[in-house]
Amino acid sequence: MRFRDTQKRHPTINITSLIDVLFLLLTFFLVTTTFIEQSALKVELPSMQNADRVQQEKRFILNVSKDGRMVYNGEAIASEDLKPLLSNSAGDVDASGGLILRADRGLPYGDVMGILDLIKGSGVKRFVIATDEQGK
To answer: Could you tell me the CATH number of the domain that includes residue 97?
Structure first.
């Protein structure tokens, strides 16, 4: 009598539901996470009591430290490069809601006015000066 050879079936693990759960967790954490924009420069903003909040899709941010160092959209720039850089992107800056100037409160007033003059001279029509809320 001849016995039939049975092929051994190897057990398999179905990971489809595991992948579904992982994507669900990934989506949950992406939706619930708050993204805080980190600045390349430590800037201590002046405070203002009646400040308005600015909402923008694409942000154009100019950080200026109290020693005069500038960072534009995360890249360090020299003050003499600011005007040509802003002139080239003036249309995009105005279309996106304007430029946010984050000048340190320790920066001399004359330097801030010089930067504002450069911004206006480059053709940027919409810009705001960032401040902290009163008491912070």
So the answer is: 3.30.420.270
Please indicate, yes or no, if residue 119 is contained in any of the structural domains: yes
Number of domains in the chain: 1
| CA pair distance 101, 70, nearest whole angstrom | 10
The full length of the chain comes to 136
- Give the model confidence (pLDDT) of 5-63 as tens digits: 777 778 888 888 999 999 999 999 888 886 666 566 666 666 666 655 655 456 788 89
State if pTM tops 0.85.
no
From the list 87, 90, 95, 103, the residue with the least C-alpha distance to 39 is: 103
Q: Is residue 117 part of a domain?
A: yes
- The tokens of 121 are what? 């001279």
Enclosing H/E stretch for 76? strand 75-77
